[in-house]
């Protein structure tokens, strides 16, 4: 059977071109945990903690076994637990045998790494393509709508941070390619959503300046500096202050960060 497991958005499971995603929220939690921990043991106690936290019912363990049975029925068309099942029984738990290429998270991380490596090598065009391909895999917030417990919540946070890093890397590549006007609106959105992210503020200052909008670029520095001072009692880094001085003097500025400093 051909499977595809999509976690970069609402959970979706596709078998042979047909969606077989569970409808029950707790069954989705079980499936998501197995996919994220593919080819590794997920202990029954971990399922219990994820599903019910510190107040599991007395029937928690048999209920987990029932969820696994139902998940097998959806994925394999059987619930028998044979050796050929995608989800198979281990001592004290279960594991899902899933090839990496069937999981969108793996494909995203692979493309993201290719993009970062290309940027460090100075291959901006290739970096931009890889990053754009990685970003196209996202359909919304990771595991959107899932009643995530502690473990899944940690994965969601990690994936959200990875998404932000690859957006920053793609923008860095676009700046090196001279696509300054194309990224200004996105950078405005990102800097307002991630208030204290200096890398994004730097990118926006550079993009505005190279679009001939020096006043707005300097205003962006003042906005960022005021937020840092008011909220954290900190000043921008020496690197950002040097950029501001270059803008004040009307000096040429680099298209973006040196390759070794890109995210």
From TrEMBL:
<protein>
    <recommendedName>
        <fullName>OmpR/PhoB-type domain-containing protein</fullName>
    </recommendedName>
</protein>
<dbReference type="InterPro" id="IPR036388">
    <property type="entry name" value="WH-like_DNA-bd_sf"/>
</dbReference>
<keyword id="KW-0805">Transcription regulation</keyword>
<dbReference type="GO" id="GO:0006355">
    <property type="term" value="P:regulation of DNA-templated transcription"/>
</dbReference>
<dbReference type="GO" id="GO:0000160">
    <property type="term" value="P:phosphorelay signal transduction system"/>
</dbReference>
<dbReference type="Pfam" id="PF03704">
    <property type="entry name" value="BTAD"/>
</dbReference>
<dbReference type="InterPro" id="IPR005158">
    <property type="entry name" value="BTAD"/>
</dbReference>
<dbReference type="Pfam" id="PF00486">
    <property type="entry name" value="Trans_reg_C"/>
</dbReference>
<dbReference type="InterPro" id="IPR001867">
    <property type="entry name" value="OmpR/PhoB-type_DNA-bd"/>
</dbReference>
<feature type="domain" description="OmpR/PhoB-type">
    <location>
        <begin position="1"/>
        <end position="98"/>
    </location>
</feature>
<keyword id="KW-0804">Transcription</keyword>
<feature type="DNA-binding region" description="OmpR/PhoB-type">
    <location>
        <begin position="1"/>
        <end position="98"/>
    </location>
</feature>
<dbReference type="GO" id="GO:0003677">
    <property type="term" value="F:DNA binding"/>
</dbReference>
<dbReference type="InterPro" id="IPR016032">
    <property type="entry name" value="Sig_transdc_resp-reg_C-effctor"/>
</dbReference>
<dbReference type="InterPro" id="IPR011990">
    <property type="entry name" value="TPR-like_helical_dom_sf"/>
</dbReference>
<comment type="similarity">
    <text>Belongs to the AfsR/DnrI/RedD regulatory family.</text>
</comment>
<dbReference type="InterPro" id="IPR051677">
    <property type="entry name" value="AfsR-DnrI-RedD_regulator"/>
</dbReference>
<keyword id="KW-0238">DNA-binding</keyword>
């Amino acid at each position: 059977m051909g499977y595809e497991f999509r976690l970069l958005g609402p959970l979706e499971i596709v078998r042979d071109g047909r969606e077989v995603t569970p409808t029950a929220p707790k069954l989705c939690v079980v499936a998501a945990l197995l996919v994220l921990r593919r080819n590794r043991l997920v202990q029954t106690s971990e399922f219990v903690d994820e599903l019910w936290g510190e107040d599991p019912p007395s029937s928690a363990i048999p209920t987990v076994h029932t969820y696994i049975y139902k998940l097998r029925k959806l994925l394999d068309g059987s619930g028998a637990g044979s050796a050929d099942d995608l989800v198979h029984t281990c001592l004290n738990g279960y594991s899902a045998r899933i090839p990496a290429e069937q999981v969108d998270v793996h494909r995203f991380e692979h493309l993201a790494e290719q993009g970062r490596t290309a940027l460090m090598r100075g291959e901006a065009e290739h970096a931009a393509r890889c990053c754009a391909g990685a970003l196209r895999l996202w359909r919304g917030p990771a595991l959107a709508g899932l009643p995530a417990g502690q473990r899944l919540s940690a994965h969601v946070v990690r994936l959200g941070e990875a998404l932000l890093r690859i957006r920053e890397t793609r923008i860095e590549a676009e700046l090196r390619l001279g696509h300054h006007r194309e990224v200004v609106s996105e950078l405005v959105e990102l800097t307002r959503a991630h208030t204290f992210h200096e890398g994004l503020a730097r990118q926006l200052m550079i993009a505005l300046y190279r679009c001939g909008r020096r006043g707005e670029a300097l205003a962006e520095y003042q906005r960022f500096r005021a937020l840092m001072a008011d909220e954290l009692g900190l000043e921008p880094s020496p690197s950002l202050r040097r950029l501001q001085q270059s803008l004040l003097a009307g000096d040429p500025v680099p298209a973006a960060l040196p390759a070794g400093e890109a995210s």
